[in-house]
Prior knowledge:
Layout: E1 20-24, E2 29-36, E3 39-42, E4 53-54, E5 57-61, E6 64-67, H1 74-77, E7 82-83, H2 94-97, E8 107-108, E9 119-121, E10 124-126, H3 128-147, E11 153-158, H4 164-176, E12 180-186, H5 187-194, E13 204-212, E14 217-225, E15 228-237, H6 242-257, H7 264-281, E16 286-291, E17 294-299, H8 300-324, E18 334-338, H9 345-355, H10 368-380, E19 397-401, E20 405-410, E21 418-426, E22 434-440, E23 450-457, E24 470-476, E25 482-488, E26 494-499, H11 507-519, H12 521-550, H13 557-575, H14 579-600, H15 603-608, E27 613-614
Parallel strand pairs: 1-11, 11-12, 13-18, 21-27
Antiparallel strand pairs: 1-2, 2-3, 2-4, 5-6, 5-7, 8-9, 9-10, 13-14, 14-15, 16-17, 19-20, 19-22, 21-24, 22-23, 24-25, 25-26
Helix pairs in contact: 3-4, 5-10, 6-7, 6-8, 8-9, 12-13, 12-14, 13-14
Bound molecules: adenosine-5'-diphosphate (ADP) and magnesium ion.
Amino acid sequence: MAKIAIDLKSGSIKNEDQLIIGIDLGTTNSLVAYISDGQPVVVKDHDGKSGLVPSLIYFPDNDSVIVGNEARPHLINDPGRTIFSVKRLMGKSYADIVDYEHQLGYQILTDDKDRLVKVRVGDRFYSPIELSAHILRKLKTRVELALSQTVEKAVITVPAYFNDAQRQATRDAGKLAGLDVLRIVNEPTAASLAYGLGLAPEEKKTIAVYDLGGGTFDISVLRIEDGVFEVLSTNGDTFLGGDDIDQVIVTYWIEKHRLDLATPSARQALRLAAEEAKKVLSGEDQFTVEFEGFHLDLSRTAFELLIQPLVERTIQSCQAALTDARLTTADIQEVIMVGGSTRIPFVKSSVSTFFGKPVHDELNPDEVVAAGAAIQADILAGNRKDLLLLDITPLSLGIETVGDLMDVIIPRNTKVPCGYARQYTTSIDGQKNLKIAVYQGERDLVTNNRKLAEFILSDIPPMPAGIPKLEIRFQLNADGILQVLAKELRSGTTQSIMVKPQYGIDEEEMGRMLLDSIQNAKEDMQLKALREAQNEGRMMVQSAGKFIQQNLGWLDERQVQEIQRLAGLLGQSIDEESKDEIQKRLESLNAYTTPLAHKALEVHVAGAMKGQTIR
Ligand code: ADP
Ligand code: MG
């Protein structure tokens, strides 16, 4: 196990002197940063003005490409060859994006609806991966020019809600740009690192990251515990951002002055004026501009009224994210503002009012994600010796119980070294041997997890089912060696075995297993509930039979028949695999037999009805 990759503070990558850069690959703007003297530095353009590289790609012809600011004018004069918002296409098929295809000025290939999308430029086709690689290459070159050294390693951020395909596409884009992508990091995680949250070893916090960018809005609720970031919930709107705010202003001016915008360039010019107004109003109370003979103006008060409905939608998303995480605003300890549009004072005050506390806006909101990516890169490079390197088990460890169920003994994200024990019992009378199968993984059925070892605890003195007390102890030491100890407490029979859980699983596989468990959680839960009900039902049927046998002396015939009838019904429902029915019939049988059991004071039977069993 050694150092674990899903943990931010893992030391799994060896210390090399090579610089690792942090990249925020954004829908509207992208940035690159690195750590110098312990501080994140966002690399600026050649005149040192801005760290933002607009995520725009222009293909003047088939052999050349222009990325960033220089591509911007071509959005108007050559829209078919100018690609924007490529991030929206990452890991998507045509069927995924057909609803917003009309919003893209360029052509999307539609021949195969289920394959990953491609963009058509002239007679050439580009995958979103290739297009993103152009942006990444531009960023890579930017650092290399600034530092006069080559860079090959990077950490790239993605939205917390990105799925496996989207993350993989981002990784591939990095590879194509000549970068070794050491890690894909969630944008809200990077933002909190930039604010120093999650860097203290023993820190435990629940935070919200509010990210309002150019075209998208994301709210993420994170739990930080001992250096591990867990996404509790995400919400947002993939079509709500600064662009919509600009559009609201454009519409306002058009209606107020009955403007007639005949040409695309007039429309674009008005849009730019609106964006300027928005930015000016983040600092001042009034904006005016001359536009084609009209005197356009906007006050901050009027602006706030215009954008109120948009801001309200983001607040509703915040509420939804909290509800999903089963939290209230009082549970949120820190709120972090990310994205250029959070510069708007009305946005800040609305978010602050909703959460009932001041928000973090001390850092430049469009640089925080890149800065955090650089910090993560620095941690991976092993440059932060002051940070405690924690070891945690990346996947849960447990044993198989009746019904192929995984019973977790050490949950994932538990700090090592650690030791846990649980007690079990047998399901068959006179059972002498017990199979103990050790598994690793998050799924509820062991067949979906990874088997690590199996051994037999033998020579258990024969006892009725439910009587043996079997203790299974898992001891995980700092080197990731798991020792499994099985002991029958009444007789003292013991067995132990050593297992190396981490062996053979790489970071990718681990990520897949975790993702798998999230995607299948609901299905697993239903199946698990059914299996548990079935197990309980079978035990009950068995006990009922035994109960009759042991108490024939005093039970009357009517009572025996009734127990048999109820047990028969229960057995039927077990075979029919209906959880609710099983539970109903379990209850009926239970209700009928409980008073009888009391009367019999048959402790063995009562014992057999409780506790989990292993084969
Ligand atoms: P993304 O993460 O989507 O790539 P950014 O975080 O870079 O986007 O945000 C870009 C948006 O921020 C644009 O809509 C831009 O107009 C807006 N923006 C930048 N500066 C300001 C400002 N001072 N006031 C209001 N909006 C701003
Ligand atoms: Mg962003």
